[in-house]
Design goal:
With about 375 residues, this protein is mainly alpha-helical. It has 15 helices and five strands. The strands form two sheets. Strands 1-2-3 form a three-stranded parallel β-sheet. Strands 4-5 form a two-stranded parallel sheet. Bound molecules: tryptophan.
């Protein structure tokens, strides 16, 4: 067997034991996806009964401004999870910015903008922890033992890394790109998060974190197996993204086909007026046949304009102009309070920095404890 044998999942000393590495390879299978969905449903129900059992971590890379896709995909749930009593951690994944691009961009501005967005959507810094990768050295240090627990072939097979690399359009694979799922595992495991809201494209990363936790405990485990060093994180699966970009293509920061949380009502109207529709004046809700029209109906509906089908019937022969007008009003009304809070927050840089510093301090405390436990398990605590 060569070192590069693609059938080898686990490192040699762990490979003959049942290992979650197999689950890693299969984490995007239909059967595995169905299991993840079912488990996610159970957790969702349990959140109301036992919120204290969970620490939730979510991470966002500060590569641009947050938009409606982010809001309805994930951010809308942060406050409700927090308000149910779940210990909520939001990571500003600044180190991840350099995985698939050469430059950092205006990173400081983007980080502060993300903190403002996070607070504006209702995350309460008294109850929740907002922190940045680069500010937590002990968490990053976990990368070292963790890298010894994964094989190169395993990393190369991660479907998310593959597709993210493809999306960069022919960029070479860097060491960081290849190993960033391990870094993400460090994010999740250092803070002992057991709940990670993800779309299904991120399931392989979560599985990687579980595999690393399992292998660490197996290789260096404490004598007391009932007290593993790491918790096993689980997915809270969010539904597939509901929204397309305003050009009918995939919504993306770089395509400029999105409405950003920070935009004004006028900018929003301008963007929506330019949105692609079709030549049929009679409005119907037909996501397959008329994706662009359906997308506007969905957006208006998410913003409180009622059921998309009923809305379409109401508009009828009113055409795309009426549809856009209704969507503009719905979006602007829905986001007005969030935008007002955001505008106040973004004007107060000192406050944003204070929030981040407090979150960083808390993250460091937990990361130092975890690193201590790791070094103790490895007999490296001198
Ligand atoms: N990889 C995630 C993304 O690209 C961001 C992220 C980094 C993350 N660390 C995390 C998400 C930890 C959840 C948990 O969107």
């Amino acid at each position: 067997m060569t070192q590069h044998d693609v059938t080898t999942n686990a490192p040699a000393d762990l490979s003959d034991e049942p290992d979650a590495g197999d689950a890693l390879a299969k984490s995007t299978d239909a059967a595995s996806l169905a299991r993840s969905l079912a488990r996610s449903g159970e957790i969702e129900a349990d959140l109301d009964v036992n919120p204290g059992r969970y620490r939730m971590l979510t991470g966002v890379r500060p590569t641009g401004n947050m938009h409606l896709g982010h809001y309805f995909g994930t951010m809308h749930s942060w406050q409700s999870i927090q308000d149910r009593g779940v210990d909520t951690w939001i990571l500003v994944a600044d180190y991840q910015v350099i995985t698939d691009r050469d430059g950092l961009g205006p990173i400081r501005e983007r980080v502060l903008s993300l903190v403002a967005d996070t607070l504006a959507v209702g995350v309460d810094p008294q109850r929740s922890t907002i922190f940045a990768h680069s500010a937590v050295p002990a968490a990053n240090q976990l990368m070292l033992p963790f890298l010894s627990l994964v094989t190169e072939s395993e990393l190369h097979r991660n479907p998310t890394v593959k597709s993210e690399l493809e999306a960069t359009g022919g960029r070479a694979m860097t060491g960081l790109m290849l190993t960033y799922p391990v870094h993400q595992a460090a994010d999740i495991l250092f803070c002992q998060a057991n709940l990670v809201p993800v779309g299904k494209d991120q399931l392989p990363h979560l599985e990687q974190a579980r595999v690393i936790a399992q292998r660490f405990d197996k290789r260096y485990g404490r004598a007391d197996a009932a007290r593993p060093v790491f918790r096993r994180p689980e997915a809270l699966l969010s539904e597939a993204p509901l929204l397309l970009g305003l050009d009918g293509e995939k919504m993306s920061k770089s395509r400029h086909n999105t409405i950003e949380l920070r935009m004004s009502a006028d900018e929003t109207a301008k963007m929506l007026k330019k949105a692609k529709t079709d030549s049929d004046r009679h409005i119907t809700y037909d996501p397959e046949g008329r994706p662009e029209v359906a997308n506007l109906l969905t957006l208006a509906s998410l913003c409180g304009a009622g059921d998309p089908q009923a809305l379409a019937e109401r508009i009828g022969d009113g055409g795309a102009g009426t549809l856009k007008q209704i969507t503009i009003e719905a979006v602007n009304e829905f986001f007005a309070p969030i935008r007002a809070r955001r505008a106040e927050l973004i004007a107060n840089e000192d406050y944003l920095l204070q929030v981040l510093a407090a979150g960083n301090a808390k993250a460091n405390e937990v990361a130092n404890q975890t690193l201590d436990a790791v070094r103790t398990a490895m007999h490296m605590n001198y």
